[in-house]
Every structure is written in structure tokens, then in C-alpha cells.
Amino acid sequence: MAEEFNTDSMLSMFLYESGQLLEKLEGIILEKQDAECFDDADINEIFRCMHTIKGSSGVLMYENLTKVSHKLEDVFYYLRESHPENVPHLELVEKVLAVSDFINGELDKIKNGDTPDGDESQLVKDLDEFLSRIKGEIKKQGIRLPKANKKEEPTQFYVAPVASEDSRFYKIVIHYRNDTQMSNIRAYSATYALKEVAEDLLYTPEDILSNEASADTILAEGFYMLLQTKSSKEEILELIDSSEAEHIDFEELNATQYGKALAELGREDVPVVINLDEEKKADKSSEQAPMPGDYVVKTKETGKGKTLAKNQPKQQIISVNVEKMDALMDLIGELVIAEATVLQNPDLKVPGLDLTNFYKAAAQLSKNTTELQDVIMSMRMMPLTNTFQKMKRIVFDVSRKLGKDIELEVIGENTEVDKNIIEHITDPLMHLVRNSVDHGIEDNPDARTANGKPAKGKITLEAKNEGGKVYISVKDDGKGLNKEKLYQKALSKGLIENKPITEYKEKEIFRFITLPGFSTKEEVTEYSGRGVGMDVVVKNIQSIGGRLDIESVENEGSEMTLVIPLTLAIINGIVVQVGNSPFVIETASIKQFVRMGEESLIQEPSGEEYIVLRGECYPFIRLSEKYDLPGAVSKIEDGIVVVLEHEGEQICILIDKLLQEQEIVVKPIPSYVKKVRGLSGCTQLGDGSIALILDIAGLILDEERR
Fold this sequence. Notes:
Layout: H1 8-31, H2 40-59, H3 63-82, H4 89-111, H5 121-140, E1 168-176, H6 183-194, E2 198-204, H7 214-221, E3 223-229, H8 233-239, E4 245-253, H9 255-265, H10 278-283, E5 297-298, E6 307-308, H11 322-343, H12 356-380, E7 381-383, H13 385-402, E8 406-411, E9 416-418, H14 419-440, H15 445-450, E10 457-466, E11 469-476, H16 483-492, H17 506-510, H18 534-542, E12 547-553, E13 557-565, E14 570-578, E15 581-586, E16 590-594, E17 601-603, E18 609-613, E19 616-622, H19 623-626, E20 640-646, E21 649-655, E22 657-665, E23 679-684, E24 690-694, H20 696-704
Parallel strand pairs: 8-10, 15-24, 19-21
Antiparallel strand pairs: 1-3, 1-4, 2-3, 5-6, 7-9, 10-11, 11-13, 12-13, 14-15, 14-22, 16-20, 17-18, 18-19, 20-21, 23-24
């Protein structure tokens, strides 16, 4: 029997397409929010977005989505047809965003498996009132109102394939019992079941999904299908769900009969295009019935001529479930580990082996593995455009609610980042943007002009890619951070040690705002003042190996920068050994390796150690002491000093020896292991052992706090 009717694929496509359309819609709205009106291209695009969402939601019977999208479509229909003047632009922007929010909320419910049961009545009422005012304005200007915006069923088009020698042709009529519920859906189930074996399938009624009245037609007249396939009658009947069918008329046709049936079923306005060889053309009589494959016509769109469906380009883009992409990335990670296992196999170290051919093959394997990794990484990379568009919406909403006049400048929105990274940075970025609007930009425009700044505040959102890292900065030209105020607030809340402000570096003072429970806002508002937010930002960014940098000048503004890796999956690293334990250091963090003697070592009475290198003094860490590793070298001259750099700050560590350089598949440290500062993850080496990955930022921060 056929599989049960399943709309999962339709639903997934509906969610994907609707999400894409809403993102495009918001992009248009926010780009033109400060304009006097929407131009014709914008109106047409918004109308098209709403028309598509209306149609697809109607097919899936989401009535509230259909009603609200149809009502907004009505608004832009009258704008498109009449071009009225003096339309309240900002109010229209708010109406469109309200519809977008409503539809997005309902889509979220559907994604979570819930029923989209939001009440659209008030939104439809508001749009009706707005539309009535537009119509009144149209009449007032002496413009004739266009005809009402009626819902039209989509026109079905037909493109028949050329039949092969083993093709079979069937006429099938399914007669359902009179008490069958939703017979149109059961009819669709039959077409859905046959799609895997059908070379060609035409049916009537055509609008079984979009028109509920088609169910009555099917009960009265039956569901009529013409099928071209290579399958037998028995195989076809096995696929069709006959549980609600009273009987099924099944007739096998020859090619000529099938062609006549197609001609009878086709619309009168569809021209026939004959596609036969020259010999057949010569022998063909004028009365001969059309053959399968003779109809190769695409449906006519309004205002356009019919177009032959010849030499149409093949589809170049497909949608792939992100879970499959993640699984593929995991497999490539395992492939990298397996490659290292092969190339570092101890059996290869047997004296006297001629491994020339082996290493040639190994080099080719490494090349292919690297190229495969690059391809899948490029497939996972996505531009920050959609993420930045969400920030535009936040600035628009928050600035209006706070009564602030703010413009947002976006730079580098096409910068590409791994999809998993984007998912982790959206919320932190939202916090930073809200803070800039609420905390950064002055409440009173007079305070800005008094400092020689324009009355309108400005926030700049910028992204750039440098050295394997992505830098996303949120910069405002507001009041900046007051170091004394930050110090006093942190001290009063007991968040820092009671020592003079002069003993803290400027970056350390700015970092106070990321401490849990810290807030400079005296009153709790919808957006801030609860002492949460910035600490969450830092935790989320650190969880993906990134960091938050803060710079500020009082009365000039602040800049907060997220520094994040391009990808979480695979990095280039140097494997080192301390005692019996291997560690991995990311190649980009290594400044140099040096051999040094005890004379370069400075030891403070408190126990802190420093290395003097070329006249510069650097903090010095013995990993063997920090992590209590037995068997490690104790004298500097017996080991290697590694100079590491992170955001302009440098630190030196002592290791026993270098092992190798290789691509590292980053794995998280298991949750049952207590988090240790200075370690960001782990990986499996070629010999099967586990190596810990050093977190340079954590080492430097830990050293500063000593």
C-alpha cells in the first residue's frame, strides 16, 4: 500500500520559503524606513512576498496567516494600482513590520510542532482601517479606485516528457465513497504516491489542494488521472491508497489513445507543438492524433507570451538539510583523524623500509583531504547579511520606543562565517546593539550638540575578515564609558578587589561591565538595568573560542568588538609535549620558538616569573607546574620557550619538545570534566591519544589576575 499522506516536505519548503520572503520583506522596509515613500519596485516586491505567503499558507490551511497576508497584500495592491500621495509612510512601515512579526511568530510555532493559533483579528482590523484611509485618500485625489484584489487560483501548466519504447499509458479514475472526508487530500495522496514511478502525470480537478470545493467535484465525478510510466498495473494499484475508494476504474491505453486523452484534458488555449522526426512529419496525416511528448509548452503569465520549454537551464542550486551538512563535516573530521593515524603509524618506523611510493600516495591523500575540507567549509559559510538585518530591526524598534533619533550604518555585511558560528553570535550581537542604543547614545540631543556632535546619534555595525578571524564591531558616537564611574560601581557591588583604580589597566576597567550583576543603569527598563546581558555575551562568545574587546573614549563613544574564529571544526595546530602529556597550540597564536638559559629568567618574590627576550619582558608560565604534570623538564635550557600572542599581548610558556604540525579536529571537553582556565578543547591524535588545546586568551587573563 502507499505510504500515509505526508506533508513534511511541503511544510519544510513552506517554512523555508516564507522565512526567506520575510527576511527580504524586512530588508526592504528597514532600508526605506527614513524615505518619504516606497518606490514602485519596492511596492511590487512587497506585494509579491505577501501574495506568495498567502497562497502557500492557504494550501496548508493556515487560515490566520492567509487572512493577514491577504489583507496586507490588499494594501499594497491599492498602492500599486493607484499611486496615491500623502500615504503615512512611517505608519505603513510599522504595519508591515507588525505583520512580519505575527507571521514569524506563527512560523516559530509550526517549527516547534505547535498549532499556529495566533489571533489575527486585531491586526486585520488595523490594516482594514489603514486601507480605508488609503481608499479615501485615493478618492480625495480624484483617482478612480481599481477593481478589488481577488484571490486567483494558480494556473497549472503541463510539460509532457517524450515516451520511451517501454513506457506504458494508463487512464485511472478513483471513485471515493460518498461519506469520505477531505477527498481532495486523499486524491493528492494518490498523486504523491505515484510521483516516484510517473514519467508523466496529469489529473483533474487541477486545484485539489488550493480549492476545498474540489472535494465535492471528486465525490460527484471521481478523480481522473492520466499516467505515463514503466510500471505495471499491479504495481500502480499497490501504490494507490484504496482504503476510502468505492472502486477504481483502471484502463491501459496505447500511445495514440493516450495522446487523444491528453488533447481532451488539455485547455483549448494551449497550442500544440509537434516534436517528431522529419520522416514521421512526411508520413503524418493531418488527422493523426497528437502523441505523448508533443506538448512542450510552459503556461502563459499575465502580460507575457507563451514560451516553449526548450533548452531550459538545469537547476544549479539545491537545498540541503543542515543536519546532513553537519554529519558530513563530522565525517570529514574523522577522515582527518584517520589520515593522521595512517601517516603516524608506528609500523612505518621499522628500519630499512622503502616508503617512497607510500609517501607519494600519502601526499596525494593529504591534498585530496584538504580540498574536500575546503569545499565543505565553503558550503557551510554564510554571509552575515541576515544577521545584520535583524540588528537593523532592533535599532528601529528600540530607538522609537526610547524616543531617540538614531541611524545605523552597516559595513561588510557580506562577510562570510560558518553557519554554526552565526547561530552563536546572533544573541550576543543583539545585546551589544541594544546596549549601544540604550546606554551609548545620549537621551538628550542637546547633550550631543553641546559636545559638537550632530543631534542624530549614529551606530556603526561592521564586519571584516582578517587572519582567520572575523571581527564584528558595534560602534556608537555616544557618551562613552566613564572609568571612575565603572570602578566605583564594581567596587560598591563587591565585584572587584578593593585596590586603587591606578592599579587597573584601562582594558580591565572597561571589562568590569561584563561581570555578572554589573549595570550602570540606575532604573530597570525593558532593555537594561537588571545586571544581566553582557556577562551572557562574554560566555557565549568564549564558548566558541572568541572574545569581546572594549574600547571607549568619554564623550566620544564606545566600540565593542567580537573576535570569533571562521569555523569551529578544524584548525591548524602545533602538537607539543610537556612531561607525558601532549598539548595543541593554534598555529596563528605562535610568535616564535626560542632556546634560552636561566640568565634570561626573572623571578619575583611573590613567585611570578618573567622572561627577558631582546630587551622585552614577558610573563612566563611553566605548564608542568600550572597543570601539575610529572616528568616535565624543570630547567629552561632543557626545554623550549614558546612566545604566544593574543590581541597584542604576549606571554611565554615552557614545553619539553615539539612533536608535529597537523590539522586538528576540535572536540569539546566532556561536561563531566571540570572547566580549567587556559584549555579550550581537546582532539584525538594519530596514535589515538588525547591532546588538550591551549586557550591563549585564558592563559593571559589568568596571568593578569594573579
